[in-house]
Amino acid sequence: MLSRRDWLTFGAGAIAGAAGIGAWLSRRPSTAAMAMPATGPIIPGSTQAYGHGAMPPLDAGPLSLDSLTHPPAPLPRGAAPATVELDVIDQSVAVSVDRIFPAWTFGGTIPGPVLRAREGDQLAVHLRNRTGHAHNLHFHGRHDIAADGWEPVAPGGETTYRFTAGPFGLHPYHCDFTPADDHIANGLYGMLIVDPPGGRPAAHEISLVLGGFDVDGDGKSELFGWNGMAGFFAKFPLKALAGELVRVYLLNMVMDAPLASFHLHAEMFDVYRSGTSLEPDERTDLLMLGPAERAIVEFRLPARGRYMFHPHQREMSEHGAMGWFAAT
3: helix, coil or strand? Predict the structure, then answer.
């Protein structure tokens, strides 16, 4: 049986070989690769973009992460949610300019799709395990114990989880099969947004999930990124209109670090812990999040320009998790 390190080597080599670039993919970023076209201000006398330690894949474009970054709109009143189809798939995912990650995924992406419902909606999530390993699906939040999702779904098996969405707020979902940290770290996680009965004020909405990527198989993440890709929002800033309300659904799914954080430069934000209140818990520019902890943050960018955001853990920010909001 191949080890995870063997699979990493085999998967990356096979994909790279098909493109004739195996030797290039096997190298770590060179100084030249890290200093590709500017994604932000350049430090005088430096050849590296400021705060930028990883680049996204060369074929990634500005719309590559749109389905994960812009959550679906709230359901209209009276509309019944459709059954959610989630397939567990083994999928090699390009997470940076020179790293391919042999992931376990919900639907082929890291993170899995952003799900959305209203408080009180009856949800049905149909899970099909299309891999050679046992997996399952666990939602945070409140639900009947029969839908808790700790039972294994065998390779080739399927099951449907039925529960009432609630409470309103932001809830992670993930594989909870033992060892859970390995299954989550391999990519089996996502977010469920549950809207309050009366909705929230209109805003420019963004979903951001922080993940880590163990690209050398040693059990520790070497790369980090928002919505499954290192360096993406440094190269392609998140755009918003100056002065409009921005709402970020924020989730930390880095399992091999005790703490991560979200820091916004040059502005403050309101924090709604777990999203379960309509009144903010605090106003700050730095939010600490443990593994699987989440929050909704809201802010306005008053003037046109770029506003940096990143974890205040240097290893994370300097290895892929630095980005920009661009107020236009």
Answer: coil
Residue 317: both structure tokens together: 């920010």
Nearest to 200, CA basis, from 249, 237, 148: 249
Measured between alpha carbons, how far is 60 from 49 in angstroms, rounded to an integer? Answer: 18
From the CB of residue 3, how many other CB atoms can be counted at a distance below 10 Å?
9
Q: How far, CA to CA in Å, does 228 sit from each of 186, 217, 253? A: 11, 17, 11
Q: What is the pLDDT of residues 237-284, one digit of tens each?
A: 999 999 999 999 999 999 999 999 999 999 999 999 999 999 999 999
Residue 159 is encoded by which pair of tokens?
A: 């099951």
Query: What pTM was computed for the model?
Result: 0.84
CB atoms within 10 A of CB 259: 14
Asked if 315 contacts 219 with a C-beta cutoff of 8 angstroms, the reply is no
Print burial letters for 151-162: b (CB count within 10 Å at least 16), e (below 16).
ebbeeeeebebe
In the chain, DSSP finds a helix count (H) and a strand count (E) of 7, 19
Q: Distance (Å, rounded) from C-alpha 230 to C-alpha 134?
A: 28
5 sits in which H/E element = helix 4-19
